Amino acid sequence: MSTVHLQVGRDNKVLNIATIQIRPNRTQPRRTFDEKELKSLSRSIVENGILQPLVVRRINNTEFELIAGERRLRAAVMAGLSKVPCVVHKCNDKDSALLALIENLQRTDLNMFEEARGIARLIRKYGLTQEQAAIKLGKKQSTIANKLRLLRLGFEEQEWIMTAKLSERHARTLLRINNEALRREVLSRIIAEGLSVTQSEELVNQVLMKKPEPEPEHKPERKMAIKDVRIFVNTINKAVDTMRLSGINAISRRNETDDYIEYTVKIPKAVS
Asked: For position 47, what pLDDT does the model report?
């Protein structure tokens, strides 16, 4: 089994590198960054500077790829810094991807689905077995298997789970239901009623033990009922944030009355 070997740049010096020369890591597992936390970190950087250098690798004569420190880089740009302190490591694509994943896994705020997608991407791209991935990440093979099983949940289900702040145990309980439509109904009830893990497990047991009723000849379309409208509002906000992070100057306006919430999103046809 190979391990990650890093060769530090000459004299292990910290270099001040222009932010425009640093590319984000293509295999970065984190996809969402809390705007309030970034602003707080940005204010700290203005006051105290960057206390821990970023880690990058050279990809050509003028550009570097980020290995660790994307939050610091984003906050530094937000603070108006044109250069950031970096340590340059020599490593290949595989090691860079692995280090970016490990650096994020060592943080406590990487959500369960970001973690699972990062592991899956690493396994798929570099042809690792679950056992090999477990060894590299310092985890049990069973832990890796359980993480990957979470990806059986659809993207919308994942969004609802995260928005409702449900736990990984909630998610694993839902995986016992193979029928997606039925699983969504159960998830809707868990969210609407604020069920605990134990209560959710009991609900899933009841659903699985219940004999299916004969379907009518013309089965009416069953619609999902999510009582907490914040789930959908959060989805809209995340979509707008994603466009902005991608360089699209999307503008959203929200108008709320006693009866409804109205969103207007403007997206420029030409992206600068």
From this structure: 86
The DSSP code sequence of 141-199 is HHHHHHHHHGGGS-HHHHHHHHHTT--HHHHHHHTT---HHHHHHHHHHHHHHT--HHH
> Is the pLDDT confidence value at 270 over 70?
no
Q: What is the pLDDT of residues 38-54, one digit of tens each?
A: 888 888 888 888 888 98
Whether 213 sits among the annotated catalytic residues: the reply is no
pTM for the predicted model, two decimal places: 0.53
Block residue for tokens 């990440």: 137
Lowest-pLDDT range of 72-76, 146-150, 266-270: 266-270
For residue range 253-269, list pLDDT tens digits in order. 777 776 777 778 778 77
pLDDT at 196 over 90: yes
The answer to whether 16 and 85 are in contact (CB under 8 A) is: yes
Decide yes or no: CATH 3.40.605.10 for domain 7-110. Answer: no
Extents of the domains making up the chain: 7-110, 153-209, 230-266
Q: Residue length, the chain?
A: 272
| Burial track 141-178 (b if 16+ CB lie within 10 A, e otherwise) | eeebebbbebeebeeebbbbbbbbebebebbbbbeebe
d(CA 131, CA 139): 9
Chain centroid offset of residue 221 CA: 33
Q: 72-93 b/e with 16+ CB inside 10 Å = b?
A: bbbbbbbbebeebbbbbbebee
- How far is the C-alpha of 77 from the C-alpha of 59, rounded, in Å? 21
Residue 191 has pLDDT above 50, yes or no: yes
Q: Pick the catalytic residue: 65, 70, 115, 157?
A: 70
Strands (E), 40-174: 54-58, 64-68, 83-90
Contact between 176 and 204 (Cβ < 8 Å): yes
How close are the terminal C-alpha atoms of the chain, in Å?
A: 46
